[in-house]
Amino acid sequence: MEEELANLHALYLMKKKKVTIKHLARKLNVSVSTVSRALRDAPDVKPETKKAVLELVEELNYKRSFLARSLVSKRTYNVGVIVPDIAVPFFGNAIAGMQEYLHQQGYNLIICSSNEEFEKEKKNVELLLDHQVDGLMISLSTQTKDYTHLEYARDEGLPVVLFDRVLPGQQDNFPKVLVDDQSGAYKAIRHLLERGYRKIAHISGPEHLVISRQRTAGYKTALENAGIALTPGYLLHFDMEGQVGELVDNLLALPDPPDAIFAINDPVAFAIMHHLLSKGVRIPEEMGIVGFTGGPMSKLYYPSLSSVRQPSRAMGKSAAKMLLKEIESPSSETGSKPKIRIIPTELEVGQSSQRSKV
Amino acid sequence: MEEELANLHALYLMKKKKVTIKHLARKLNVSVSTVSRALRDAPDVKPETKKAVLELVEELNYKRSFLARSLVSKRTYNVGVIVPDIAVPFFGNAIAGMQEYLHQQGYNLIICSSNEEFEKEKKNVELLLDHQVDGLMISLSTQTKDYTHLEYARDEGLPVVLFDRVLPGQQDNFPKVLVDDQSGAYKAIRHLLERGYRKIAHISGPEHLVISRQRTAGYKTALENAGIALTPGYLLHFDMEGQVGELVDNLLALPDPPDAIFAINDPVAFAIMHHLLSKGVRIPEEMGIVGFTGGPMSKLYYPSLSSVRQPSRAMGKSAAKMLLKEIESPSSETGSKPKIRIIPTELEVGQSSQRSKV
DNA sequence: ACCGTTTCCGGTACCGTTCTCGAAAGGAAA
DNA sequence: TTTCCTTTCGAGAACGGTACCGGAAACGGT
């Protein structure tokens, strides 16, 4: 009677009284422990009662509370990821890859964006720490110049995995998953050489980022291996996106301008192409172009862009996998060296480097 | 002695003993209730003790447990969002807008991607429900043809806000934030007409989506208002992305082919341009192009794409705002009509519709 | 008939908060 | 002095689970 009334009231307020493990227990005339065990599929519970529980669960549409569970088990089954910009397709895809794997492993993903700001990145780490995620994946912002915030997180007991954007130097002990930037760049230059381009310039990114360095290294060694001397002025770095036009102008103004440009990534490549085409420079006849991180856009551009493909989804999945492994058995405990996974790249040839005759 | 040992052990295992409200209480010789109150900045606690608590918090680096808090307060301060594809810049930006607002309001965002699959979308709703989010924002997948899953969520007491992609018909009672598709399309067509284009075709999307319908409607009324009859064969729908080339060929094969194409969105516009340019059709001289949802790419294409800008960030923020309002006071309780917020669009003129002479 | 094992289950103490209730202390008002 | 508010705080019960410790049947072997 009293209960019915309370029930009615609850319904009225639409603050739906969630069914709990206790309701199940009472209905079945067993203890909460038994129900809990049944739900976790523990070995020491009779198959019949287990079945009965499952049926009642179905009937009452019971949902177990992650919250309560997490509170006692000290695990939230949430992991966080911080990327510089969600809207960049590469990161979007990487995240999709993580999601897929994590969901299927019973984990959940909390996504944060640093907007390429170091301060925001630190705040995000704090936030995820506050929310007691079980682990953290991160791709650094361009402003990030040290690991202090990540080391802090690690000291708090949080497993951290870096991916794609990391800092140079290997004295840090973070597991990482990287793309094979150097050999990707190498392939790009080889390809241009094969097409008959000889005067190859490179527009790179901020010098403190590993990807910039690696790609530049690949560029250099490919040229060296081909016996071609580096031309001063052919290697440029940009700090802000806006500059690209200027840099291209610098190249064109050179006494001996290049006949091909290798761009650090696709957006930069697009900016280069736009600038060149609007100046009447023909691509690929007068200038060959190769980018990096081919997204869907590279095929849609005209001319379509040759680009070193980064398997972004695979990278995401790989990072997630590594993180879960780290959560299960931290390398700091097992004493094993932190893993570094290198994902291979693949050159996708488009029209932007297809010079008609060699 | 004993405690020290335990402490040492804990440290050794790196299962960092988190400092709790109890530790604070003991150290300060007050009760947990008092500490709790101080932390929540309740009015009935002496300023001095409040200060003492805050200081100790600082010193011990105490973090309050969201988990425990949520367990009793029935609020997780997490909200979920489901989008068809995180890697699409429009959604990425919308999410960024939501994040920003939500974080600043003390909420957290859990992001899910349906990959344009209805089944996945349903699973995502389940997942978020399981995780007891306080609210849900969603942009429907192309496969979604009804609201049953959302109605279920709403019946469970979960506030739901739709954005961008919704279903036609207004008998549902969900609050929504939409872009002004119709007038956006109208503006696009007006613009083309002003530029002297007369034979304007439209490549639209799946017919059951509201955005398709609205944009098509804008297209039609703009032509009608200009006294131009609709040409049969000028209005096409695509189901899969791949088809765009075919559709363009159909248009070109028409006895009287169009001199401009209005695309339902930018990716489609890019595909159209790529196809046309590779066939030697000159843009904008022989064919004008206008897209929808200008991202950063529209300026980078050559020729740059004229496009109806959707303020994606603003939409995200608006949706988040609406959701929080819904969480604080559900419209179902206050009896007020669910809000529908329409965000205005803006035409960004590029080169793709800049015919030299009118 | 006795005793050691299994098999299955119940009781209870948490996990880290918030919330409700009421009580002590210190005036102000009577 | 008594009465009655304020202000400030403490005790203890939740919240929905899990983990640990036992204990009662049921079973088989001797």
Please give a structural write-up.
Two copies of one chain form a homodimer. With 358 residues, chain A is of the alpha/beta class. Helix content of chain A is 46%, strand content 15%. Chain A is built from 15 helices and twelve strands. Chain A has a six-stranded parallel beta sheet with strand order 2-1-3-4-5-11, sandwiched between helices. In chain A, strands 7-6-8-9-10-12 form a six-stranded mixed beta sheet, sandwiched between helices. In chain A, strand 3, helix 8 (148-155) and strand 4 form a beta-alpha-beta unit. The termini of chain A are far apart. The model of chain A is unreliable at 1-15 (pLDDT under 50). Chains A and B meet through helix 5, helix 6, strand 2, helix 7 and helix 12 of A and helix 5, helix 6, strand 2, helix 7 and helix 12 of B. Chain B binds a DNA duplex (30 and 30 nucleotides) through helix 3 and helix 5.
